[in-house]
Design goal:
four-stranded antiparallel β-sheet, elongated, alpha+beta, 9 strands, five-stranded antiparallel β-sheet
Length: about 160
């Protein structure tokens, strides 16, 4: 309705009490759009948790491993991360499609609990992960082919270890 926005061509908004409400709404929106108002409002609000940057007590590390998978073989490699710590990863199966499940298991929680981040069949993968919980986070691969393949895995981040499960 136009009266909500401070416009009242027919006068009905004034009779219903909507015009003053709309005029206040427009004035508040204009004031909030000014840089000075935004700075004043920000100064009065508590600082939010920073979701764009995180620090770690651990040193940055990089792990490189070659994983040999025989026909129909399967393997799992996991990083150990605290909640909020992150990794950057890439893996390459040399052009061969492998079934994979990128997932995490909380260190505190019911037995068998896990969260899948990505699950598919592909010849390679890459990305980042910020651990949603403390625990192990990593990859399960299965070679559906009749030939042996080698997966090259590179992980950089603030994990305490990379281990074969």
């Amino acid at each position: 309705m136009p009266a909500e926005y401070g416009i009242d061509w027919t006068g009905a908004g004034r009779l219903l009490g909507l015009t003053p409400m709309g005029q206040r709404k427009v004035a508040t929106a204009k004031a909030a759009a000014s840089p000075e108002a935004n700075m004043q409002a920000a100064a009065m609000m508590p600082a939010p948790a920073n979701r764009y940057a995180a620090s770690s007590k651990r040193s940055l590390r990089t792990d490189l491993v070659e994983v040999t998978l025989p026909p129909n073989g399967e393997v799992e490699y996991k990083t150990v991360l605290a909640e909020g710590e992150g990794i950057v990863y890439e893996w390459d199966a040399g052009g061969a499609d492998v079934k994979f499940d990128f997932h995490g298991e909380p260190s505190a929680g019911p037995p068998g609990a896990f969260l899948s981040f990505d699950k598919a069949s592909a010849p390679k993968g890459a990305g980042t992960l910020t651990a949603p919980f403390a625990g192990t986070h990593g990859w399960y691969w299965k070679n559906p082919a009749a030939v042996t393949i080698i997966i090259k895995l590179k992980v950089s981040g603030f994990h305490s270890e990379l281990k074969r499960m």
